[in-house]
Each structure stands twice: as C-alpha cells, then as structure tokens.
Design a protein that fits this description.
The chain has 10 helices and 7 strands. By secondary structure, the chain is an alpha/beta fold. Among the domains are: 94 residues, no CATH class; 28 residues; 58 residues, no CATH class. A 7-stranded mixed beta sheet has the order 5-6-2-3-4-1-7, with no helix packed on it. Helix 6 crosses helix 7. The chain is elongated, with a radius of gyration of 53 Å.
C-alpha cells in the first residue's frame, strides 16, 4: 500500500514538473515571437489627436520607416484623443515635426508614423504638447471622388459644358461628319496625284531624280569653290584676295582719317566752317541776282517792243 502511494506521488510530481517545463517554454516562445524585450529601457511619448482613425493598442510606431516602438494606450478625453507609446530610442521633436496615423497595408491596420522635423530646426520647448495630424479617411475621400464623378457624369449627360455639348448637340456631329468627308476627299486627291502636294507624293521617281540632280549640282559647285575656281572660290581660297581687301580697307581708313583731320580739298569742305559760310553768301548773291532779273524783265520787254516799232 505504501509502495503504491509512493508510485502515484512520483508520477504526479513528474507530470507537474513536465507541465511546469511546458509553461516556461510557452512563455519563452511568446516573448520571442512578440519580440518584446522586458529588460530594455523604453522612452514614453504622448501625442494628442483630434481623431485617430482606428489606431489601437499594440500598433507599431515607425520612425523613418523603421519600427521603434508600439502604442500602449489610447485615451478619449474632452476634445481630443491622447495616444501613449513606448519607444525603444529617444526622440527629440523639432519645429516642423509631424506625427500622423497611416494605414499599415491595403488590408487594414494602422501605424503611428513620427517625423522629428528638419535637422536645422530648433527643438520643441520642453513641456509643450505634441500635436498629431488628423488622419485621412480613405473611405470618405473615395466617397467624395465618386460623388464628383457622378456630378460630372450628370452634367455631361444633361448637355452642360463643352463635353456635354459635343455629346448632345447633333449639329456638332454633323460638322464632324463634314470635316471627315472633306479630309477623305483631300486624301483621295492626294492619293490620285492631284494638286502640287499630290504630284510630289505620287511622282516619287521624278522628285527623287530632281533631288539627286540638285545635290549633284550643289556638290559640283562646292568642289569648285574648294578648289579655288571662279570668283567665289578665289575669294575663299586665295590669300592674295584677302590681303588686297585688307589693304583696300586700310586705304579707306586712312582717307577717312585725313578727311576727319581736315586734310585735302574734301577734308576742308567737311571740316572748315568758312567754306560753308562762303557757300551761303554765294547762294544769297545768286538769289538776289535772280530777284533783280525778275523785277527788270517787264521794263526790258516793254522797251524792246516800243523801240522795235520804230
């Protein structure tokens, strides 16, 4: 009887010890799979939102695309929602920071994304609350977009706007038919070789030969110019022409300098004011002589007639 009791007690102890080992293993696996380090130092941060869009406890916190913590609690207060998170690294918020709630995937879920702000910006004063950006509700945005498309479709269907008139107005359709018929007629004329453009398109061999002859002629002229033939060729190839032209320009420049300096007859005419004064006096004398002739002309005519009669 004593042996049986001892045996039963031994089995119970072994079963209890085995269950204890299983519980320890489950705890270790749970810690490993949850990636929680209970001995790591955490840095709490609190952010205030007007609305968090379904953010829940346990959602990840991202910094520059990297998980740096998780949401620990969300608390609804009077006019805002307080989100508390434990971070694995310390964060210094700077002016221009941004904290927002984003979708973690197309299937759902949320993440808390943190942007500390520009590196050269001053830090946020200690004790100042961190204000988060309200999340964008994709469903609401999609509803607004669908509503806009619906309104646009209704306006087009009722004939409003340019597109609506194009669809509803039969006169526009008639004009399009006329334009299409005209284009078809022009295309047929071109295909049949009518008109200048039609001849250019249809007479391929002649146009090609003319282009070949023109290119050959241009190459011939270019070759003659390169070889120094003709007037243009000599102007380009002969250095003596350049020297003569340079000497001529120098002579013209020298003559212009002499004229400007008053040398020679032409220079005196250009620069000497006395010549201008004498020319004016001569013109005045000539004008006076002409006036005198006009005044004495009647007397002379009368005298001639009178004495001619005797």
């Amino acid at each position: 009887m004593s042996d049986k009791h001892t045996k039963d007690l031994t089995i119970e102890v072994l079963v209890g010890f085995f269950m204890f080992i299983i519980l320890i293993a489950l705890g270790i696996f749970t810690i490993v799979l949850s990636r929680q380090n209970f001995f790591q130092k955490t840095y709490p941060v609190e952010v205030f939102f007007e609305e968090i869009g379904g953010l829940r406890e346990g959602d990840n916190v991202l910094l520059r695309g990297t998980k740096v913590g998780s949401v620990k609690a969300t608390m609804l207060e009077k006019d805002h929602v307080a989100v508390r998170a434990n971070l694995e690294v310390p964060i210094e918020f700077r002016e221009g920071y941004k904290v927002e709630v984003l979708d973690s995937s197309m299937l759902g879920g949320k993440v808390l994304k943190i942007d500390e702000g520009p590196l050269n910006a001053p830090p946020v004063p200690e004790g100042e609350p961190i204000i988060g950006t309200p999340p964008v509700n994709i469903i609401d945005e999609l509803g607004i977009a669908v509503s806009g498309i619906k309104n646009l479709t209704e306006r087009v269907a009722s004939g409003h706007g340019t597109l609506g008139k194009l669809i509803q107005d039969e006169l526009v359709y008639d004009h399009l038919q006329e334009i299409t018929a005209n284009l078809q007629m022009v295309s047929d004329r071109l295909a049949n070789g009518k008109g200048t453009l039609g001849k250019l398109l249809s007479d391929d061999d002649r146009l090609y030969r003319d282009l070949q002859d023109s290119m050959a002629y241009i190459r011939s002229i270019s070759g003659k110019i390169d070889s120094g033939e003709g007037t243009l060729g000599k102007l380009i190839a002969d250095d003596q022409v350049y020297e003569d032209l340079r000497a001529s320009l120098a002579g013209i420049h020298e003559i212009a300098n002499k004229i400007n300096s008053g040398e020679g007859t032409l220079g005196k005419l250009v620069t000497d004011d006395q010549v201008y004064v004498e020319a004016q006096k001569l013109l005045e004398d000539l004008r006076a002589a002409i006036d005198d002739m006009r005044e004495t002309s009647p007397v002379t005519t009368f005298s001639t007639i009178f004495f001619g009669a005797f």
